[in-house]
Design brief:
The chain is built from eight helices and eight strands, in the order H-H-E-E-H-H-E-H-H-E-H-E-E-H-E-E. It has helices at 2-8, 29-32, 61-69, 74-83, 100-106, 110-122, 144-147, 178-190, and strands spanning 42-44, 50-56, 92-95, 130-132, 155-157, 166-174, 195-203, 214-215. A six-stranded mixed beta sheet has the order 3-6-7-2-1-8, sandwiched between helices. Strands 4-5 form a two-stranded antiparallel sheet. Helix 4 (74-83) crosses helix 6 (110-122). Bound molecules: zinc ion.
């Protein structure tokens, strides 16, 4: 039966190089090797938020991450999290929220899918402590200046309790850091937290160049 199914379903191409693969993997072996780990050091945003990232945004990451986001592909987030060399420590995961219109367009919330994938490894609760109250243009349609205009008032805090310890904001990509900084400030306005950090799947190499970010 399994052999019949394999014969009927054509091999999925590698999402990065598009070459046909004998197995239904996201990437071929060669492209998998281009996933560049970015563990061990954090990027500190203006305001002091430390952001840990699993990968550099480049190579196969630059194909997989947009693919996972729209429409939302939870199994791909689970696979990417499983490839990370290091995962963060914390007490709860708070996805950087997506506006409801984007969730409808994408068939779900990509940061929630990512946080759930991380939660499965770390056994931490996913707490939807933030809502997005402002519909921003799609990130891919924004220039850097527009991305930096994300403000704390673009988020609304929900009256949910967060556990003691280090709460982690979860996002897919760190670019200018503006979204994470604004989300952090919104969360801290209504929650007295012991510690707040952030974790992203991938950091764009330019994210620490001249945008108020400093690599520790
Ligand atoms: Zn490939």
């Amino acid at each position: 039966m399994k052999g019949l199914l394999r014969a009927l379903i054509p091999p999925a191409p590698c999402l990065h190089c598009h070459l046909p693969q004998p197995e239904h993997l996201w990437l071929c072996e060669g492209c998998r090797a281009t996933l560049a780990p970015d563990g061990g050091t954090a990027t500190t945003l203006t305001g002091g938020l430390n952001v840990e990232s699993a990968f550099f945004y480049g190579g196969a990451c630059s194909a997989l991450i947009p693919y996972a986001k729209d429409p939302v592909e939870p199994p791909l987030y689970a696979w990417l999290v499983a490839q990370a060399a290091e995962l963060p420590n914390g007490s709860a995961l708070v996805p950087v929220p997506t506006h409801w219109r984007r969730r409808i367009e994408r068939g779900g919330c990509h940061t929630t899918a990512l946080a759930r994938a991380l939660s499965a490894h770390l056994d931490l609760p996913v707490v939807h402590a933030l809502e997005r109250s402002h519909l921003a243009p799609k990130q891919s349609q924004q220039d850097r200046e527009t991305r930096r205009q994300v403000r704390p008032e673009h988020f609304r805090c929900r009256d949910l309790e967060l556990p003691p310890g280090k709460v982690l904001l979860i996002d897919d990509v760190l670019t200018t850091g503006a979204t994470l900084s604004a989300a952090a400030r919104a969360l801290l306005q209504t929650h007295a937290l012991d510690d707040l950090g952030a974790w992203v799947l991938a950091r764009r190499p330019a994210s620490n160049e001249g945008f108020g970010l400093a690599k520790r």
